[in-house]
Amino acid sequence: MWAPQVACLAAGHRVVVPDLEGFGKSSAPDDAGAYSMGGYVRQVLGLVEALGLDRVVLGGLSMGGYVAFSLVARHLDVVAALVLADTRAGRDTPEVFQRRTDQQEQVRREGTEALVETLLGGLLAPATLENRPLLVDQVRRIMASNPPAGFIWGLEAMKGRPDSLPTLGAVKVPTLVLVGEHDAPSPPDVVRVWQQRIPDSELVVVPGAGHLSNMEDPDTFNAALTDFLDRL
Fold it and tell me: From 210's CA, which of 2, 51, 110, 126 has a CA 20 to 30 Å away?
């Protein structure tokens, strides 16, 4: 999913794109104890250490944003700057919590295919769904490549994530926040409220994009990202 950003940044930056446990080519144990925001943070920190990196510009979209919030709350010393895209700082509402529980049960009963189709409708802007079948199919294939355990326990990790709103004022690094104009799970007006609590932060609304703004409008997303990095 980060291919447009890797292609844009690779010439001038070292870009590291991890597969968290349960996703991509990483292992996917069918064990609730293997998945949590704290566990994902340990995986990212382990990768930073294994690669011999110092302070990094940390970026995350959606669930990746939840991981980033958890990491900076505990290990801000390894973060030089922060990029948060299409995500929320607060915990799930009761309605979203229940929806995630229902989705877990659906995957247990039916596998991931039906859930992938449901998720597509919320991840992409209506115009993307209607007019860009190649991108829709690409997102579908990315999600379908993840095993059922990754969905089930990733959803559990999101349900149990800490509330990051009280700690936003302590994020003392430059922060770029991006959100799609038509992001349904993380609408711009909701994002703007928590973004303003981060002292050195700026907000970019990606026009026409939904929840996957980095894929739906990579030109706007990349322009904002490269401008941010150039100013660090």
Answer: 110
Instruction: Give the count of beta carbons closer than 10 Å to the beta carbon of residue 173.
Output: 18
- The pLDDT tens digits of the residues spanning 188-218 come to 999 999 999 999 999 999 999 999 999 999 9
Per the prediction, the chain carries an average pLDDT of 97
Q: Based on the number of CB atoms within 10 Å of its own CB, is 139 exposed (0-12), middle (13-18) or buried (19 or more)?
A: buried
Q: Which two tokens stand for residue 133?
A: 């079948």
Q: Give the residue extent of every domain in the chain.
A: 3-230
Answer yes or no: CATH 3.40.50.1820 is held by domain 3-230.
yes
pTM of the model: 0.96
- Tokens 């007006």 — which residue? 189
Q: Are strands 201-206 and 56-61 parallel, antiparallel or unpaired?
A: unpaired
Measure the CA–CA gap between 207 and 12, rounded to whole angstroms: 26
Pairing of strands 201-206, 79-85: unpaired
205 and 113 Cβ atoms separated by less than 8 Å: no
What is the Cα–Cα distance from 162 to 62, expressed in whole angstroms? 15
The Cα-based distances of 231 to 4, 114, 205 in angstroms read 21, 43, 19
Which letter, b or e, does each residue of 112-138 get, where b requires 16 or more Cβ atoms within 10 Å of its Cβ?
Answer: beebbeebbeebbbeebbeebeeebee
Token pair 């566990």 in the structure block, residue: 39
Q: Give the integer Cα–Cα distance in Å for 109 and 129.
A: 27
pLDDT confidence band for 40 (50 / 70 / 90): very high
Distance in angstroms (rounded) separating the CA atoms of residues 31 and 152: 10
Rounded Cα distance between 112 and 53, Å, is: 36
